[in-house]
Amino acid sequence: MIDGVTFQRALSVVFTVLAAAAATTPTGRASGVQLDKLVLRASQIGPGYTLHQRPDGHGVAGFVTLDMCGYRFTSEALRTGRLQVNYTRKGTAIGFSNEVVTYAPGGTRLAVREMNQAVNRCPTKPVPSTVQGVPPLTYRITRLSTAGLLPGAIALRVRISGVYKGKPLSETDTVVYQVRGNILSGVYAYGGSTTVRDRAALNAAKQSRLNLLG
To answer: Which domain holds residue 117?
Structure first.
């Protein structure tokens, strides 16, 4: 059972509820990739932001990375490691998270294809979530420009709504996915006004592009 605060937090990261440290070491290394070198530095988010480690920020076993529109993401089985961290700044309404995931060969291509299929076929009615404790959710998705990002990037404004204990709850987040080789990076922004949040998320995604390119 989850309370309302936990439910709201689950809404904001419903695509990226992450794993215990089974597949990634505490230093963030997976399949020879140093994941903590790929996640955004706090300074790349913006002045005054602080990076926070997540207790659920390492590994893939038994947890979900992609969960949207009730779609069954078969690419989940191809993940080999992951690291996710959060970013906050005192006095600002916008928070961020960055997730970096490694896949077996071909996994990122499948993940991108499945994400596009999920968005294109997203039902207009509530659909079950694969995240434990999260009730059926309704998604309203707007695609955003991916100018300045890696080829094939997916940028979305996602309004997620549901009912918990008879109380309607909703929020709108901005989500940007990019891949290079067998690595996927997801940038998630929540809170604040739509225009400011979208711009901030896309700016952070451009920084993530630089990290992926090395």
So the answer is: 4-213
